[in-house]
Amino acid sequence: MSVPCISLRSGPRLPMLGLGTWKSQPGQVAEAVKTALLAGYRHLDCAYAYGNEAEVGQGLRSAMEAMGGSLRREDVFITGKIWNTYHSRDRVRQCLQISLDRLQLDYLDLCLVHWPMGYAEGREDFPKDENGKFVFSEVHFLETWQALEDLHSEGKTRSIGTANFNSSQLQQLLDHGRQPPELNQVECHPFLQQNQLIDFCRSRDIPVVAYSPLGSPDRPWAQSDDPSVTRDPLLTEIGATHGKSAAQVALRWNIQRGVGVIPKSVSSGRIVENLDVFDFQLSREDMSRIASLDRQFRACHLNWAKDHPLWPFQEPF
């Protein structure tokens, strides 16, 4: 199955559908990655903070062995991310090297600044005070970006970008960075359509990839009355007319908008199902009806960090 790709400024081509690994539990990740690669995935989304990069690397090597040499490292697009406790210049390098060591790779295809705000460095990955409040750092993301630019020049990553940056923060990188972000990865699904941010990025030649494209129903802080993408009546109805599930409709909707998607799953059936979205087309009416679902529902809000001056969701987009 041929998956369309997004061309990045530095040259790499990113498949528009990849396997997300956030929240994938230890003991399940390696097999999920292997299953995905054998099914035809060629894009893996990883991060230091997910705590499972070693298993992602194990799954990659297992798939390469199973495919008898027909799958090479250069055939798979691998994204990593610099975590919030590694925003200062020297620690950016350290974080990227830790990820490479865990994955057992020599380079990443894309490395992102995971969030614009930094946490206190030199402690645990999620530092909190005695009252359970997150402890922040004052390192500005421009310093993080400059370090990432250096690592790109050294070949440690083939391209660099951002995650969870708003338009104002992206503009700061465009104004002050040596090179522009090559991609912005943000939460995006029918309940949070991100039209203004996508238009902003598109006008500046910054592709967008959607994380949590199915609304991240298994996030730890989910509430019972939160809207559900995979059970939404309209998406289910549209899916029935195409012989597809609501999840497949949600993924196809973003892809038709030119937005990449990285759905997470450790279920072999869902991994295969999520890839099966390139044999149908949503009509103009379908797309218009899905547009009506936008309700600015943000599943991954990080409200516990909203008093950080660089928390990105205080801007309209």
Any overview of this molecule?
This protein has 317 residues and is α/β, with parallel strands linked by helices. It is 34% helix and 11% strand. The protein has helices spanning 29-39, 53-66, 89-103, 141-153, 167-176, 195-203, 233-242, 246-256, 268-275, 284-291, and strands spanning 5-7, 13-15, 19-20, 43-45, 77-82, 110-113, 160-163, 184-187, 208-211, 260-261. The chain has an eight-stranded parallel β-sheet with strand order 3-4-5-6-7-8-9-10. It has a two-stranded antiparallel ribbon with strand order 1-2. Strand 3 (19-20), helix 1 (29-39) and strand 4 form a beta-alpha-beta unit. It is globular and about 55 Å long. The model has no long low-confidence stretch (mean pLDDT 96).
Strand fraction: 5-15%
Which ranges are low-confidence, i.e. pLDDT below 50, for 5 or more consecutive residues? none
Total strand count, please?
A: 10
> Going across the major beta sheet, what is the strand order?
3-4-5-6-7-8-9-10
The biggest sheet amounts to: 8 strands, parallel
Q: Globular, elongated, flat, extended or rod-shaped: what is the shape?
A: globular
Quaternary structure classification: single chain
Distance between the termini: 35 Å
Q: List the helices and strands in order.
A: EEEHEHEHEHEHEHEHHEHH
**Helical amount:** 25-40%
Number of helical elements: 10
**Overall mean confidence score, pLDDT:** 96
- If you compute it from the alpha carbons, what radius of gyration comes out, rounded to the nearest whole angstrom? 19 Å
